[in-house]
Amino acid sequence: MKKLIVLLLVVLLVAYIYHSNPRVIDDLTKKAREKAEGIDSGNENPGNDNGNSAGTNTGEKGFSGSGWAGNGSEGDVYIGEGFGAVRVNSTYVLFLDRNDDGKIDAVYLDTTGDGNYDTKYLDQNYDGKTDEWVTTFNGEKSYAWDLTGDGIADVYDTDGDGKVDAWDINSDGVIDERDVDGDGNPDLHDMDFDGVFDEFQGGPVLASPENETAACPQTVEDAYRLYVQAYNNVTKLQAQYNDEPSDELKEKLEEAYGKYEKAKACYESFTETESGTERENITGELGGLMKATLSTNGSVGIRFSTGEIFQTLEDWEKMDIALEPWCVDYPAILGHYVDIGAKSLEELTVGDIPASGYPAEEGAMEVVIGHVYVNRNSDGSYTAFTLVSHERIGDCGHVVEIEYRNAGR
Q1: For residues 312 and 159, is the Cβ–Cβ distance under 8 A?
Q2: Distance (Å, rounded) from C-alpha 323 to C-alpha 385?
Q3: Where do the segments described as Disordered lie (predicted)?
């Protein structure tokens, strides 16, 4: 909403300036190609190459030189070498004609007043309509593209990882589908276009964590929907808490964790009888005892068969388990594993490894020192592991040491 208001103010201001100075558009588009190339190559502070250009911080230094339209010293419009700027409050809006056709095809906004152009409206096919939006927030970029030519974004890359993860199906400016697990397929849907994902309304509602008699949904589809909803709620609240910690958010997080654990247990009650029952029994011996240290600040996950450690959750598809940055006292590990109780990992045999009960979808839960867990790995093998030590770092950081033994397929 803030950006929309700023944009409307810009439009009104440009109209007024053009009325009072009809040549301003010609001045703005003069020699813009070189300046556009400099900005699009990654320069967030354009125009600091000579005395007649923008300062490195538009919020403080402004523009210097003789480029002011009107009285030549200061005003609402500045004409620089290959660019033009319009003052809005304490910052400026930058306009460019990147292909020298006499039409503005790029608008750069500094929405925070820190001197960096964090929002860009681009007409990439030069048809007079914005078809790409780029926004930078806390150092991370997000993108949106118009595929239909109506000037409204249709697909989004909200985390800047190069993958489309959100869709506006009916071109009303509101996201209707979102991919939350990074597999390229939508997990959340708003098929009635009311602005609320269907998974977050209607259907089964999970009772509060303290209600031990809460009923589990009757179908695996409803159980899975509930499980996804609970997991997404945890990650959303966790992101909010990381940005602005508060006691209220911490309380909501703890409640969300409780609901997630119940939803996960409910879903696994369906999948435990549907997975792992067709494989042959494991034969042979368990491998030797191995050790690994995982940290949410790096070394976040491991592939058991090779012992390779991975640094970020973006490589989840290559891992077997990963440490989650949950804002709780206990460590939570993501994987496809089951808890087989308090046992000695050194004395464990192949016969102790369950033939079924492994979750079909990855999930995270609390791991306890002294218990042994068996993970069904991505290559079809099995690994027994146990938690040796745990250290909490800050609100949401964790470091754990695990021991593990690999088994065959």
Answers
A1: no
A2: 13
A3: 36-66
The burial class, CB within 10 Å (0-12 / 13-18 / 19+), for 225 is buried
Q: Report the amino acid identity of residue 153.
A: A
pLDDT in tens, 298-309: 889 999 989 999
Say how far apart CA 351 and CA 40 lie, in whole Å: 61
316 close to 378: Cβ distance less than 8 angstroms: no
CA distances from 134 to 28, 96, 140, 179, 368 (A): 22, 15, 10, 19, 44
Cα(66)–Cα(46) distance, rounded to whole angstroms? 17
DSSP letter, residue 385: E
Q: What is the mean pLDDT of the chain?
A: 74
Largest CA distance in the chain: 88
Q: Which residues contact 319 (CB under 8 A, 6 or more apart)?
A: 301, 302, 303, 310, 378
Helix (H) / strand (E) element for 296: namely none
Q: Is the pLDDT of residue 57 over 90?
A: no
Query: Do 157 and 140 contact (CB within 8 A), yes or no?
Result: no
d(CA 99, CA 37): 10
Instruction: Specify whether the CB–CB gap between 133 and 153 falls below 8 A.
Output: yes
Pairing type for strands 397-407 and 132-137 reads unpaired
Rounded CA separation 409/398 (Å): 31
Sequence-ordered list of residues with C-beta below 8 angstroms from that of 186, at least 6 positions apart, any chain: 167, 177, 178, 179
Q: In 10 A of CB 299, how many CB atoms?
A: 16
CA distance 39 to 302: 40
**Residue 377 corresponds to which tokens in the numbers above?**
């790995």
CB count in 10 Å sphere of residue 139: 6
Place 292 in a pLDDT band, splitting at 50, 70 and 90.
Answer: very high
Euclidean distance between CA atoms 324 and 192, whole angstroms: 34
Rounded CA separation 102/113 (Å): 29
Q: Sign of torsion, CA 97 101 104 106?
A: negative
